[in-house]
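Good morning,

Attaching, inline, the backbone tokens for the sequence recovery test we're adding to the shared suite. The designed sequence is right after.
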């Protein structure tokens, strides 16, 4: 719970306020689109490096193309969602952030696991991942429920 007892007084946090979840689903979708456009753009310079490495290694370096996009995405997620802002660039633009329900900060590993669970869930249980948000409290998705996280508006 986010309500804490301090000197016999119940203290609530912003995650207890229902207004913190207004429009979160729509904002998450738009943030996702923005973030993966950014990942696509970040992949270009790395692809050039892998191409040059492939020439230097007589083609062996080109095997890195198979892991290039996931590696760039993981680095992006680790450095943005795992930062002090607890939001990727797209999430910041949409005014949302990822929070843990226990109040601790999101670290890089949790951010990456959150993203990997999202993608794994979409591969295995495509409609269920997002449909859960229609019925779960605080508009949480399946991977949010598994990790004890919630996406909320950062401006409230």
């Amino acid at each position: 719970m986010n309500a804490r007892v301090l000197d016999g007084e119940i203290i609530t946090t912003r995650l207890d306020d229902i207004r913190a979840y207004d429009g979160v689903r729509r904002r998450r979708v738009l943030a996702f689109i923005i973030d993966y456009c950014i990942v696509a753009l970040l992949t270009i310079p790395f692809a050039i490096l892998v191409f040059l490495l492939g020439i230097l290694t007589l083609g062996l370096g080109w095997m890195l193309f198979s892991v290039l996009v996931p590696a760039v995405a993981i680095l992006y997620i680790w450095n943005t969602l795992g930062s002090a802002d607890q939001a990727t660039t797209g999430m910041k633009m949409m005014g949302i952030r990822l929070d843990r329900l226990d109040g601790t900060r999101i670290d890089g590993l949790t951010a990456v696991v959150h993203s990997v669970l999202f993608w794994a869930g979409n591969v295995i249980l495509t409609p269920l991942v997002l449909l859960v948000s229609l019925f779960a409290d605080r508009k949480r998705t399946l991977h949010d429920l598994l990790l004890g996280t919630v996406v909320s508006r950062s401006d409230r």
